[in-house]
Design goal:
Five copies of one chain form a homopentamer. By secondary structure, chain A is an alpha+beta fold. The first copy, chain A, has two domains: about 280 residues, Beta Polymerase, domain 2, CATH 3.30.460.20; about 60 residues, Magnesium transport protein CorA, transmembrane region (Methane Monooxygenase Hydroxylase, Chain G, domain 1, Up-down Bundle). The relative contact order of chain A is 0.09. Chains A and B meet through α3, α4 and α6 of A and α2, α5, α6 and α7 of B.
Chain lengths: ~350, ~350, ~350, ~350, ~350
């Protein structure tokens, strides 16, 4: 489950830089796809082994190598060696419980993001770690499993739509980040709709399931928040970065992603406020309802208990009970009972219980 | 609805800088009005097409071009080209879910504000995005729909009242911002009145509607807050700005708007505190009322249940029940019942339940 | 009411710097008093018109001009012209909903404070805006209505007690601020006493009024807090100020006021903590009491309901009910009833409900 | 009471620097003790009047003058004059409601601390203001009443144990501060024990007193917190101080006190968290208990109310009630009643109420 | 117990730098083990007395001296003298209630960490203080008791796995810190599992034990948090440190530990949010259940109370009650009763109580 802390115990005691995949194994086979593109064209292919994807580093084309599946440590070591990646960074890529972060290493930038998916049925958020390495003419991206939000980017590379083929690797990283953050908006829309629906339910006819729905929503928001707050620092770091990997031309684009991130945070906080408001109304609704249940009980009981007492009195079997033989006693008792009944009603009316 | 997160999914996957209107379409036709003024006079007209509003940039007059309606992407592209606006900024203008922000671009400043309107009936806040571009001798403003809070500013330009005609474009932007922030005060007054009314209601005779009113108020405040907090940074940015667009003469005016913004924030926080206080009293009121319902039930039941028991005993049909044939048994039973009754009353009196 | 947001709508749409009095009109006539003093003596008089109070600016004497009542815009304009005050500052003086603030203008400092008064009966805080202008040899102070906390300062000027006559205008402003902050201590004492009283009440015998008192207290504290927090920045600004209006000799005195302000804030926060603690106990008290009401009901009902059932059984009129004709049946039933009674008591004792 | 805000109203309107003792008068007679020590020896004596304690300022010995009792203003004036203390600082010494603070004056440092004592019986914290003046070769300390935590320091001076006699006045001040902070640890231990005891009580058998104990604890923690947070700034100020009064040799010692202060703050916050957790459990316990009371009532009532109804039916006196004359009717009714009884029990069992 | 504040009262009044062991005595005998290693080999042995472990400071080998048990003050003094450690630092090592901290002293760095262990049975966290001194070619580590998380590090030194033998003392300290922080992940996993289990329990069938489990979890999180927050500053301090003890080669490793620490903090905060959410559901569950208990009571009582009243009326013994002798009265009464019964059921159905 996405919401559980990742089990790192496998790792305990090993020397740092030891490559071990930590986290759920979400795919059976590792799949590597390589995109190679430039202003003049673009080609993509799936490679069979890590060695195949190591292309001479000279040349003007930009290469985007995407790896789906992290459990094959051999692959990672080969890749790490070809692109000269620090063992601690390789380790971070394989440990799938990272918070979003940005690290500058000599020659490249390293980024961790979290790609989220909303599970409609369970109402929970599934999370996948996406690590990227932004080099001078290559971008490496690592995902836990196949299936991502990058298809539109791939499409733009293939068709040459937009400016992506004319820009550098930093623009590609921007495009991927943008796709990830756009995915957050989709999740926020769905959560927002759930809040609306729950609002109706809470005010209308809440039942015991409602509480669980509120809690699931709260949990999803906690989780979303945990992914977005550190992202803000990451994007902020890119905007302020003085690395030669980030060109001036791409800077406004990163600022744009930064604005979107802030907007996501804002909306998450607003939804959190609303959900906590929902809980308040829910609790009050329960109190209110209990109140109205109690009122019915009280009204019925307080009206009939005295009447039953009166009936009980004249059901006693004493020999000397003069009222029993009076002619009008029975109607008189009915009269008294009626008077008590009406008196009670008036009292409740005055107390606004009716 | 204003309070729902804007649906950005239309946008997902498109290259950045693609102009698409995101948000509700609030008007059918785009309407552009152009004000042209200087110390000597002012003229305003409605233009038919984006081309008409492009006036040669030289000359001393200040031009304020206001666009109502954002769905016509062609217009925007023409405007953007004439005034040389960055595609990402055009995109921000069209995506109507922005938080207030300030961006400095070469040659102009870009601002996003949110103009709010209080819907009396629903008790909710409607929001409209107002984007402005502050150039050397022109101001562009973009609204989602016709109808705004700027009529007084238009009036001052037409009549020449105040100093607006003698000042630069920064003063015009100040005047527009001031109008927007003044609108917030109007909303705060109405919300403040609602708090007063709800206070009376909560202390007096709260019902189930009260809770919904409190929640609506809370929600409106969450929303207002979301618009005002980032505004503070925007205005603060203008005050501290070293852009050549902001002249020294206008600086105290922006400081004035800054003070107003702080005051709005202050009042919003105070109202939030009060509303959360209201919820506390509301919940306590419900408890209190339930308490008093319970007390009535308890008093009636605890008095009559034992009495009914006594009556029940002497309604038994045993052959050998000597009390039944005693002469004074019946009055004696009444006496015992009376004693129980009075004893109970005294007990309740002592317990302060009566 | 002090706690309502001030209505600024009168102002909407007017050009900035337009002088309009915003807020409640608290006095009929404007009253201006002028103090003129130096090391050698002091004189004070009431002037009839704004012109009278304009005294040549040269000379060594210090002049303190105090204005009670802000609705006469003419006066303000004359004064503003004589002392060369910026229109936006005049506007701030007339808009009586300002937060405390400090502004440095060329030639003088401008301060806004809030003078508070505790209304014993309503338990609410009344607030009056006090604006001051600290010039080289004059101090202007503006109040909404006659009646203030400055009498002791006036007295010290008249009698020459303390060092006030030997110091500059900054010392006078210090003395006035000190008087305002001293007033806060008086209010805190009264609020502190209310907290003590409410503590007793809440633990002893809380009723429905208690909740309203807690809320009134909470509201007063929210209001007090709103006035004091910005004051801290104002006084801090004076302490750190490099304006030529603040001399080194007065600096320790402003530091003293700063310490007092911090102490007020501290106490306000402590009282807020206590009041929110009070609410917790109050709610628990209600629960506790309901609990004990329920226990009595439960004990009486659970004891007598089974007994009444037994009596009911032997009140049935079946022809064949052998027990009815047994000799010892009646005492036996009493015995059974007694046993049930005692058994119940023991059960409740064990459950600690008695 | 320590927890009440000090009444400063006596002071209102007096010129600043007027010496008046504000606060409770905790001792009848002022007692001044003078310690004089150096590497070679130490002597201490009690002096009769303020004049006696004024010793020529030259010489190598260090003099520690401790004053118990602040109500004698004459003494203070004499002392202030001899040691050249600023009137505002004298005023701070006499106003016993100060928060801890540090002030650098020319020639000496001025410190205010709060010495706390835990009142076991009331569960509240008593506070005493300790002011110190750290001069080049003298230390003045002022307490509200005799009795303090400094006996161990006195002892070390007399016996020459530790390095105290070989260090300067800053080390003496350090030793006194350390003693004060050590006292806080003692209080924290006692409060920690109370939390443990209350935990047992809340989980075991909470009664109405429990709530008051929780509140008393909360209040004590609020009070302790109020004394410790500003202390942190004071000690931090000493650590960073560039005053010539603080020598390099003593700096690590102040850092040590700083660490202790942080530790106290940490523990206070942890205890606060725990106490607020206690309140939650307490409230839940009450709910739980009410729940179980309600269950008993419901079970008894829902079982016997229908049975009593059946008995009531056959106690009716209609002439034509065929069942009454049936032979097996009576046992049959018993059978029905038994069936209802058992059915109810099974239902409750299924609902897990039994 | 780990969660109790450490008793420091033993210490009160002693001169600073006096070595006294404060805290629980967790072991009987002090055990010192010495590791000596370099690129070429490694040897380790247990030494009998403090003197044995003092090895000439020259030479290239790195020495790691680990001390288990802090109560033998003599040992500490000998060690302190040999390695020239400041008395205040020795004191900190012996006082086992320190928060994590980092101090730079001339020639070495001093660190305090807290090693945690989760007690499955009690659900509480046990804590042990680990102090380290990082010198040029030696590392001293001090633990309260034998048994730690360092066995994997020892193993790596013995076998030469990883790079530990080729790096300096800072890498050894890194390896030890990493082991401590890895231990936190283990605890977080266990706490995370408990949260999952409690979630099921709270939604399914909460009982009175549930609340205690929630509270125990909350307490463990408070405690964990208290250990981790200051750790962040410690590791951050190491990352930014300009001490010559920290080499550039080790810097990325400390950054790695820093990332882990942030991740621990993040998870702690998330779990805290979830636990407080659990409490909310728990409380609501109780309310819900009480609600359903009340509903059953109300339904049974409101149906049978009026019916019993009717039966009571016809059990009265008046002589003149014409209905009694009517032929169809008895079935008619049954009919009325049936009608009331069905009417009630319909009413409850409409109210959604059934």
């Amino acid at each position: 489950m996405a919401n559980k802390p990742i089990k790192r115990s496998k790792k305990t005691g090993l020397p740092p830089g030891t490559l071990i995949h930590i986290g759920e194994k979400k795919t059976e086979t590792v799949r590597i796809t390589v995109f190679e593109y430039g202003p003049d064209g673009a080609a993509d292919r799936t490679v069979k082994s890590a060695k195949d994807c190591v292309i001479p580093k000279d040349g003007n084309a930009i290469r985007w190598i995407n790896v789906d599946g992290l459990h094959d440590v051999q692959w990672m070591e080969t890749l790490g060696a070809s692109f000269d990646i620090h063992p601690l960074i390789l380790e971070d890529i394989l440990n799938t419980g990272q918070r979003p972060k940005l690290e500058e290493a000599p020659g490249y930038l390293f980024l961790v993001l979290r790609m989220l998916r909303f599970e409609e049925a369970a109402g929970s958020i599934q999370s996948e770690q996406v690590s990227m390495i932004l080099g001078p003419n290559y971008v490496l991206s690592f995902q836990e499993a196949p299936g991502d939000v990058f298809d539109a980017v791939r499409d733009r590379i293939r068709t040459g739509r937009g400016r992506i083929r004319n820009m550098g690797t930093d623009y590609l990283v921007y495009a991927l980040m943008d796709a990830v953050v756009d995915g957050y908006f989709g999740i926020l829309e769905k959560l927002g709709e759930r809040v609306e629906v729950l609002e109706q339910e809470v005010i209308g006819m809440p039942d015991e399931k409602t509480l669980q729905k509120i809690y699931a929503l709260k949990r999803a928001l906690i989780y979303l928040r945990k992914s977005v707050w550190p992202l803000r620092e990451v994007v902020g770091g890119l905007v302020r970065s003085e690395s030669e990997r980030i060109t001036d031309a791409t800077s406004p684009y990163f600022r744009d992603v930064y604005d979107h991130t802030i907007q996501v945070i804002d909306t998450v906080e607003t939804l959190r406020d609303m959900v906590s408001g929902l809980l308040d109304i829910y609790l009050s609704s329960i109190s209110n309802r209990m109140n109205s249940v109690m009122k019915v009980l009280t009204i019925i009981a307080t009206i009939f208990i005295p009447l039953t007492f009166i009936a009980g009195v004249y059901g006693m079997n004493f020999e000397w009970m003069p009222e029993l033989s009076w002619k009008w006693a029975y109607p008189a008792v009915w009269g008294v009972m009626g008077a008590v009944f009406v008196g009670m009603l008036i009292y409740f009316k005055k107390k606004k219980w009716l």
